[in-house]
Write a structure and sequence with these properties.
This protein has about 375 residues and is mainly alpha-helical. Helix content is about 70%, strand content about 0%.
Length: about 375
């Protein structure tokens, strides 16, 4: 009987109930909230479901992301190997490949002024950089945190890895992806506060048709120019443009379909679960993480505001030909930010279609955020 009792006791103490801390329960609750937002509310479920489930797993079974050095048999946890692909910048670069293969750059080509709106929205990144330094982060950590303002999860992970800020990568990635998912909640109040009803009602002229030759030359020319000026952006910008060339060339349809579908979804699963698995209670529930989350929100809000304000300036210069709402799409959350511009405009006038106009600044924002990351790497001599 003693053997049976001892066996039952061992089994009982191997359950998670005897190992969980109050912090684990808090993070499990946060994971459940994320799952609710993703499944019930539909807030970017492709991002939030894997992130939330990775968060759930690591707070029940921390060894799922343990490194080989931390285990008795020298074999790391499942999500440890997924996370290594993040640190090596493999998954962020493949995400950009998929985004390029899925995205039509035509609106940006048809309206090059969109580049300015995309650039204006990056102001949030650099303002957050200086604010992060004031809050006690060192220069590299401040740069890694501030890139959250672009609402671009892959770029945030990429830059944190390149700057050696792997200890902050989890909170940075979770904050970036969370704000990407919460674009429909965060942006509209800012957009409405900074624009008048008259401005929101502006209908823009139809974009000119873009030729096939222009669409083929665009990714090639952008790669040459951007990667020559900032070679460190090649893994992101290069993959983005390669994916788009797959799409527009028309001669590698199988590659385009693979990059935009099967490969993209596989990478999202690996990236999302590994990012979620970095949010153990010990790593996430601290003052540094709280500051990162706040700084990321400030950066994203400032980026949205400066995009809209620059849109107002262009509206004034063009005598009412540009709706300032499309400026908010200058952040890198593709295509969520463009959809929000469309929705806010349609709330004022259901016949006002801003989506394609907003896609120009949105695509420019993806490039702009990658360029901002390249600037930080150049500043630090990487």
């Amino acid at each position: 009987m003693s053997y049976v009792g001892e066996t039952l006791s061992n089994l009982l103490h191997q359950t998670a109930f005897f190992n969980l801390t109050w912090g684990n329960y808090v993070m499990i609750a946060v994971a459940c909230v994320f799952l609710f937002l993703a499944i019930k509310k539909g807030y970017e479920p492709l991002l939030l479901v894997p992130i939330a489930f990775g968060m759930l797993l690591v707070n029940i079974y921390p060894d799922i992301i343990a490194s080989p050095e931390m285990t008795s048999n020298g074999v790391g946890g499942l999500l440890y190997y997924f996370y290594e692909l993040d640190e090596w910048s493999i998954l962020p670069s493949l995400i950009f490949l998929g985004v390029g293969a899925m995205t039509d750059f035509g609106p940006l080509i048809a309206n090059p002024i969109s580049f300015l709106l995309g650039a204006a929205a990056q102001f949030g990144i650099f303002s957050a950089y200086f604010l992060a330094i004031l809050l006690g982060f060192n220069d590299k950590a401040a740069a890694a945190v501030s890139i959250i303002g672009g609402a671009d999860g892959p770029t945030s992970i990429f830059l944190a890895g390149k700057l050696g800020q792997t200890g902050l990568m989890g909170p940075i990635a979770v904050a970036a992806y969370s704000y990407m998912a919460l674009v429909p909640i965060i942006q509209p109040p800012i957009m409405k506060a900074l624009t008048t009803k008259k401005e929101r009602l502006i209908k823009m002229e139809n974009l000119r048709p873009v030729s096939k030759l222009e669409k083929i030359l665009f990714p090639i020319v952008v790669t040459i120019i951007v990667c020559t000026i900032l070679p460190t952006t090649a893994p992101l910008v290069g993959m983005l443009m390669l994916g788009n060339l797959f799409r527009e060339s028309g001669v590698v349809r199988q590659l385009q379909e693979t990059a935009s579908n099967a490969l993209m979804y596989i990478v999202v699963i690996l990236l999302g679960t590994s990012v979620g698995a970095t949010t153990s209670a010990e790593a996430f529930l601290n003052w540094s993480t709280i500051k990162i989350v706040i700084l990321g929100l400030v950066a994203f809000m400032v980026g949205t505001a400066t995009g809209v304000l620059f849109g107002k300036l262009l509206c004034f210069i063009t005598k009412g030909k540009i709706n300032p709402l499309i400026g908010s799409a200058g952040v890198s959350a593709v295509p969520m930010a463009a959809r929000v511009s469309q929705k806010v405009g349609a709330d004022e006038d259901p016949t006002n279609f801003l989506l394609m106009h907003a896609m120009g600044p949105n695509v420019a924002g993806v490039i702009g955020t990658a360029v901002a990351a390249g600037c930080f790497m150049a500043i630090f001599g990487l």
